[in-house]
């Protein structure tokens, strides 16, 4: 860019000539001086209007070569990059060009620039500047330690605590008595809730300054927080274990009852899992089979009404309840007719209940005075999807006859 | 050639600027000498020999340095040898050992810890060792800092034997005070090793140190306060797998809540004894007893009592429980250490304890009248 600017001047003043003689050079200087004098003479004659106003000073300042950032913020792609003012680039060159400066000077310049950006809360730019400074790999360990520490400070503002701690480690490595870096690491480790790290950093810091009140407080807090964290982990582990045991107990009871469980995946009866018991019907979810205070199994039960493609879910069907009891609740004399029951014929006294024995395409009739447990232990019965299901039909209706004709009915 | 001549010759060969092979052989001879009582007393009686050995501990030949340290371990193990080493003028054995321990790259740092532990073991030498350390750059606080950093030594030394050094210092009033400087975190760092599984020696020494510190009554409020919170730490090694209801669990200090099923109790009865004696010490004031009651630690002691098989530990457990279960009106005095126990009564109590320990039943309620059980 600076080259382009040079070309522009050459173009304007010398018609694009590159090989200058000493006389020509002197002539150009004289001309430029004249221009300047003329400019100064004319000043005052016209009112000065180019100044920054209260409204636009921020933008003006941001564009001014003296104040414009040297390093572009990340995330701006090359194409969109605001063209850097050539003067600004020239200044940057004076400060940062490794050909004109020692690595220490360049690193120092980047540090100052980073600190400036940090003050303006431009933390990303600050990080970039400090990183550039570190890239110089200068021999001044004090300076490098400061760059690491400062970068840690900037990282902190992004919440990059892990990166910040790494910078603190490096800073302390380079400058073992760097209390500031230790303090920052304590803050970062606290944010990460990494309490063992907090101890280590506090102890390191307290070695440097045994009177630092903040370190003492942080250490005490970390001890308490760690205890709490560990307690909570233990509690959680215990709860999980308890849950697991309860679930195992549930599976044991189910298999001791002789209830067969089926799932969509075919497998042997020995590998009962809880997944087999999770109700697949949305209305039954959350009411998975469980054990009540009397040690009885409580199942979610589904009643199917194929005639109307309707169903009911009884969420808590205790195994000692009779089928009849629940039918009374739904279709008894005191209960209103189901909204889908257009002909009002689903009344308890006229209902028949069956279950499907899939292996033999059989429809098995259930004695309504049987308990759920008795039905489920029928060797032909298999609980699918963790939810026992029964087919409810109206005795003697046309639909019932048609429906039953598709099966081998056994009564 | 007389024995003295032989020693003179040995000392010549031990000179640091001497030939490598003869130096190495001489140092090995010196180390072997310390293996016999005669050799030990011979070397102990010759300060110049001790100086010569001490000058070889950092010899460039690693085995020579190791032999020198082994010789010093053996010499310091005998009280007379320890005294002789401390009396050497030209080289300060204490500061030399501290330097060895402080150096993370010194390969024989474990020997150095052992030598310091040996030197500080006899009570009359302990103060001297402690004073010399207190004058040096690394004081007790610094030693504990080193002790508490796992893998401090990069050459594989474990530094476990630094723990008994601290225990020895905890027998001194000055030592206890330095361990319990309120915001230096010496005590708090030690506490974390109370259930250190990797080394029984370190664990036992740390607990013995804490046990000794519990004899400082004026520190009890601090020890039991939230900055240290010692009571749950003393009980944790006595606690087994959790058997409590959720409600009981919540009533305990959080360190003791919801312990896992595989929680193991401290396996060594000697260590459990120290823990229970420390608890007993904390029980001597009313304020402390009230704190312990509010922490409901009786639950832990109850379960420990069911499990405990060592008679002495059972007795100590019952002593603490008796104090915690009784009301303050029944105990009748705020500070049990202020109770005057006449010598004939004390003798009677000790006899009762002995009887109890030998398995003969005795009246438990009278046992607890003795408040100062547990000797330093």
Automatic annotation (TrEMBL), chain A:
<dbReference type="GO" id="GO:0006457">
    <property type="term" value="P:protein folding"/>
</dbReference>
<keyword id="KW-0677">Repeat</keyword>
<feature type="domain" description="Cns1/TTC4 wheel">
    <location>
        <begin position="294"/>
        <end position="403"/>
    </location>
</feature>
<dbReference type="GO" id="GO:0005634">
    <property type="term" value="C:nucleus"/>
</dbReference>
<dbReference type="GO" id="GO:0030544">
    <property type="term" value="F:Hsp70 protein binding"/>
</dbReference>
<keyword id="KW-0175">Coiled coil</keyword>
<keyword id="KW-0802">TPR repeat</keyword>
<feature type="coiled-coil region">
    <location>
        <begin position="223"/>
        <end position="254"/>
    </location>
</feature>
<dbReference type="InterPro" id="IPR019734">
    <property type="entry name" value="TPR_rpt"/>
</dbReference>
<dbReference type="Pfam" id="PF00515">
    <property type="entry name" value="TPR_1"/>
</dbReference>
<feature type="region of interest" description="Disordered">
    <location>
        <begin position="1"/>
        <end position="23"/>
    </location>
</feature>
<dbReference type="GO" id="GO:0051879">
    <property type="term" value="F:Hsp90 protein binding"/>
</dbReference>
<dbReference type="GO" id="GO:0005829">
    <property type="term" value="C:cytosol"/>
</dbReference>
<feature type="repeat" description="TPR">
    <location>
        <begin position="145"/>
        <end position="178"/>
    </location>
</feature>
<feature type="compositionally biased region" description="Basic and acidic residues">
    <location>
        <begin position="1"/>
        <end position="20"/>
    </location>
</feature>
<dbReference type="InterPro" id="IPR044059">
    <property type="entry name" value="Csn1/TTC4_wheel"/>
</dbReference>
<protein>
    <submittedName>
        <fullName>Tetratricopeptide repeat protein 4-like</fullName>
    </submittedName>
</protein>
<dbReference type="Pfam" id="PF18972">
    <property type="entry name" value="Wheel"/>
</dbReference>
From TrEMBL, chain B:
<dbReference type="Pfam" id="PF04064">
    <property type="entry name" value="DUF384"/>
</dbReference>
<feature type="domain" description="Protein HGH1 N-terminal">
    <location>
        <begin position="101"/>
        <end position="273"/>
    </location>
</feature>
<feature type="domain" description="Protein HGH1 C-terminal">
    <location>
        <begin position="278"/>
        <end position="331"/>
    </location>
</feature>
<dbReference type="Pfam" id="PF04063">
    <property type="entry name" value="DUF383"/>
</dbReference>
<dbReference type="InterPro" id="IPR007206">
    <property type="entry name" value="Protein_HGH1_C"/>
</dbReference>
<dbReference type="InterPro" id="IPR039717">
    <property type="entry name" value="Hgh1"/>
</dbReference>
<protein>
    <submittedName>
        <fullName>HGH1-like</fullName>
    </submittedName>
</protein>
<dbReference type="InterPro" id="IPR007205">
    <property type="entry name" value="Protein_HGH1_N"/>
</dbReference>
């Amino acid at each position: 860019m600076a080259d382009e600017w040079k070309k522009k001047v050459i173009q304007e003043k010398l018609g694009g000539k590159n090989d200058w003689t000493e006389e020509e050079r002197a002539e150009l200087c004289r001309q430029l001086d004249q221009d300047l004098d003329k400019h100064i003479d004319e000043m005052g004659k016209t009112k000065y209007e180019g100044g920054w106003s209260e409204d636009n000073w921020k933008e003006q300042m941001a564009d001014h070569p003296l104040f414009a950032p040297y390093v572009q913020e990340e995330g701006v792609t090359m194409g969109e990059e605001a063209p850097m003012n050539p003067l600004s680039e020239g200044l940057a060159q004076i400060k940062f060009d490794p050909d004109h400066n020692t690595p220490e000077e360049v690193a120092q310049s980047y540090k100052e620039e980073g600190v400036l950006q940090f003050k303006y809360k431009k933390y990303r730019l600050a990080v970039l500047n400090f990183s550039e400074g570190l890239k110089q790999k200068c021999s001044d360990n004090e300076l490098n330690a400061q760059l690491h520490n400062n970068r840690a400070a900037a990282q902190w503002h992004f919440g990059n605590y892990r990166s910040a701690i790494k910078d603190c480690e490096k800073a302390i490595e380079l400058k073992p008595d760097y209390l500031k870096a230790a303090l920052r690491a304590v803050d970062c480790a606290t944010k990460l809730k990494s309490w063992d790290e907090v101890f280590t950093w506090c102890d390191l810091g307290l070695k440097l300054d045994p009177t630092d009140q903040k370190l003492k407080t942080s250490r005490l807090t970390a001890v308490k927080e760690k205890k709490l964290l560990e307690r909570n982990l233990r509690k959680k582990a215990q709860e999980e274990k308890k849950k697991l045991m309860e679930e195992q107990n549930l599976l044991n009871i189910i298999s001791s009852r002789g209830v067969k469980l089926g799932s969509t995946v075919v497998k042997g009866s020995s590998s009962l899992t809880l997944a087999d018991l999770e109700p697949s019907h949305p209305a039954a979810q959350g009411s998975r089979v469980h054990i009540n205070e009397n040690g009885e199994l409580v199942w979610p039960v589904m009643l199917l009404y194929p005639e109307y493609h309707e169903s009911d879910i009884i969420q808590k069907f205790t195994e000692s309840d009779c089928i009849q009891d629940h039918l009374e609740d739904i279709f008894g004399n005191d209960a209103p007719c189901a909204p889908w029951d257009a002909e009002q014929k689903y009344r308890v006294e006229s209902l028949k209940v069956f279950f499907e024995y899939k292996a033999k395409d059989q429809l098995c009739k259930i004695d309504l005075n049987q308990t759920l447990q008795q039905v489920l232990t029928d060797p032909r019965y298999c609980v699918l999807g963790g939810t026992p299901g029964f087919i409810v039909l109206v005795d003697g209706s046309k639909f019932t006859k048609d429906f039953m004709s598709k099966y081998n009915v056994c009564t | 050639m007389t024995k003295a001549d032989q020693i003179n010759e040995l000392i010549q060969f031990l000179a640091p600027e001497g030939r490598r092979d003869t130096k190495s052989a001489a140092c090995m001879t010196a180390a072997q000498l310390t293996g016999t009582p005669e050799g030990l007393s011979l070397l102990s009686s010759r300060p110049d020999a001790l100086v010569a050995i001490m000058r070889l501990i950092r010899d460039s030949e690693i085995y020579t340095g190791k032999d020198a340290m082994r010789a010093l371990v053996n010499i310091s193990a005998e009280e007379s040898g320890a005294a002789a080493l401390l009396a050497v003028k030209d080289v300060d054995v204490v500061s030399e050992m501290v330097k060895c321990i402080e150096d993370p790259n010194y390969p024989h740092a474990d020997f150095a810890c052992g030598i310091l532990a040996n030197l500080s073991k006899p009570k009359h030498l302990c103060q001297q060792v402690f004073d010399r350390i207190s004058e040096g750059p690394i004081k007790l606080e610094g030693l504990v800092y080193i002790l508490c950093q796992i893998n401090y030594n990069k050459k594989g030394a474990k530094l476990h034997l630094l723990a008994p050094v601290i225990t020895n210092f905890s027998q001194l009033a000055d030592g206890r005070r330095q361990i319990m400087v309120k915001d230096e975190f010496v005590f708090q760092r030690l506490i974390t090793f109370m259930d250190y599984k990797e080394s029984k020696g370190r664990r036992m020494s740390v607990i013995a140190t804490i046990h000794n510190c519990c004899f400082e009554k004026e520190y009890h409020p601090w020890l039991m306060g939230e900055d240290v919170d010692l009571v749950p730490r003393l009980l944790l090694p006595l606690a087994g797998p959790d058997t409590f209801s959720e409600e009981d669990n919540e009533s305990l200090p959080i360190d003791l809540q919801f312990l896992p099923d595989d929680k193991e109790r401290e396996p060594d009865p000697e260590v459990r004894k120290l823990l229970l004696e420390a608890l007993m010490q904390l029980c001597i004031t009313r304020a402390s007893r009230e704190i312990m009651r509010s922490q409901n630690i009786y639950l832990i002691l109850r379960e420990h009592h069911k499990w405990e098989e060592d008679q002495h530990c059972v007795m100590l457990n019952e002593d603490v429980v008796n104090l915690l279960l009784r009301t303050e009106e029944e105990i009748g005095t705020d500070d049990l250490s202020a109770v005057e126990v006449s010598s004939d009564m004390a003798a009677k109590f000790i006899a009762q304890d002995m009887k109890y320990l030998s398995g003969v039943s005795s009246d438990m309620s009278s046992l607890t009248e003795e408040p100062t059980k547990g000797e330093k």
